[in-house]
Design a protein that fits this description.
With 413 residues, the protein is mainly alpha-helical. 74% of the residues lie in helices and 0% in strands. Helix 3 packs parallel to helix 8. The N terminus and C terminus are likely disordered.
Length: 413
């Protein structure tokens, strides 16, 4: 009977999460809103190379400028959300980011390089909004499943978004693809504005919870560890992607890049579904060790596309669980009054990991080959993650769910 109960309860967390009012609608709108965001890098690269006539390095510089802008703007937008509400942030970012993308096709390269940073500052924070709203809608004991669904949504977005971007850019034009991004971003922003999902749970709306605590009271070694783990995980993922493309190009199978990417995403989705259904899960640092450690030997499989699919699958299984785990821990460690800023900091950490992983692993690939690129992805992630060892295994917060002040801690301590 006990075994039957456990089997029947395997997907119970997902059922309970999806029956919570507002969760299904939020997940659906966040998935749709993430599709254009996931397509941005690919469309921007094709526009700079095909329309403006510059090289891939120049396209990378535009992407890097936007990445830096997002890294700086994410915590600032999160703070605006904490202070003025979600609709204020969505209005500013929808107008600002939508205008940038609707006019980007008219810009010469030099202006695009500068305005890419400015656009990143006011990027529509759909990644942050989804996680913050889930923390408000879902009780703490079910957030693991909720964040697993969110991570699965992100993976699906990366499967759909770039493919659609390439399709429009190559079959119609890069100008049409850029304008389409602007339109979709504006539509997404309007939908989020109308939906206006909560950013705090009902029990977090009392005056004491709305008092903004000093940053040092919550940005402690535990939160620092979560941010570092987020950065390290995405460093490894970005590096593996670069090494994968290099390996397929070296073997003359670059046309199979999409197939390998889809298999990799399927592995991540599978891992995310399993992670959210488990009753007890390992800490984020353990998941990071598995993610990066399994990435190191991928290069030993060779450069055939089917071999890469098999070799990348185990590491891919750890992708969504690691990101879901860090999202859950961020929501747990952050006080309600600063949860938007905390989620923004995590978004910045993720963006920083991607910005560091691609070029640094690219250097390893150029110097030593694609096989060593996989090793550099895993070892680099392990090295960054080692900075979080002290905080990663620190005692968890006193509550099993939301942030609570321990005895002797708090704004006045």
């Amino acid at each position: 009977m006990g075994v039957t109960a456990k089997r029947g309860d395997y997907l119970g967390n997902y059922r309970r999460v999806l029956t919570i009012p507002g969760v299904r609608r939020l997940l659906l709108i966040m998935f749709v809103a993430r599709i254009p965001i996931c397509a941005i890098e690919m469309v921007l690269t094709l526009h700079v190379v095909l329309r403006l006539g510059h090289g891939y390095a120049a396209a990378g510089m535009v992407g890097a400028a936007g990445t830096i802008g997002v890294s700086v703007g994410a915590p600032l937008m999160g703070r605006v959300t904490d202070r003025f509400g979600l609709r204020a942030t969505v209005a500013v970012t929808t107008i600002g980011y939508g205008t940038y993308w609707l006019t980007a096709w008219t810009l010469p390269y030099s202006a695009l390089l500068v305005l890419s940073f400015a656009g990143g500052l006011v990027a529509l924070p759909v990644m942050t909004i989804g996680r913050q709203s889930l923390a408000a809608l879902v009780p703490a004991e079910h957030r693991k499943a909720a964040y697993s669904l969110d991570s699965v949504s992100v993976e699906l977005g990366f499967m759909v978004g770039p493919a659609l971007g390439v399709l429009v850019a190559t079959r119609v034009s890069t100008v049409a693809a850029v304008i389409a991004l602007g339109c979709l971003i504006i539509v997404s922003g309007v939908c989020v504005y109308v939906l206006n999902p909560p950013i705090r749970a009902a029990h977090e709306e009392n005056p004491l919870d709305l008092i903004r605590p000093p940053r040092r009271s919550w940005l402690d070694r535990r939160m620092f560890a979560v941010l570092v783990i987020s950065c390290a995980a995405v460093f490894s993922l970005a590096g593996v992607e670069v090494a994968m493309v290099a390996a397929l190009r070296a073997s003359g199978q670059v046309g199979m890049t999409g197939v390998v990417t889809v298999v990799w995403c399927v592995a991540s989705v599978t891992g995310g579904v399993i992670y959210g259904a488990l009753r007890r899960t390992p800490r984020s640092m353990v998941l990071l060790l598995l993610l990066t450690g399994l990435a190191v030997p991928i290069g030993l499989a060779g450069d055939q596309w089917w071999a890469l699919c098999l070799a990348m699958f185990p590491s891919g299984l750890m992708c969504a669980p690691t990101l879901a785990g860090t999202g859950e821990e961020t929501s747990r460690l952050a006080p309600p009054a600063v949860r938007g800023e905390a989620m923004g900091l995590q978004s910045s950490a993720i963006t920083l990991g991607a910005a560091l992983g691609a070029p640094l692993v690219g250097l390893a690939v150029d110097r030593f080959g694609a096989g060593w690129g996989f090793a550099a992805s895993g070892l680099g992630g392990l090295l960054i993650g080692s900075l979080a060892l002290r905080g990663a295994f620190a005692r968890r917060p006193p509550a099993a769910g939301d942030y609570q002040l321990a005895a002797g801690e708090g704004p006045t301590a």
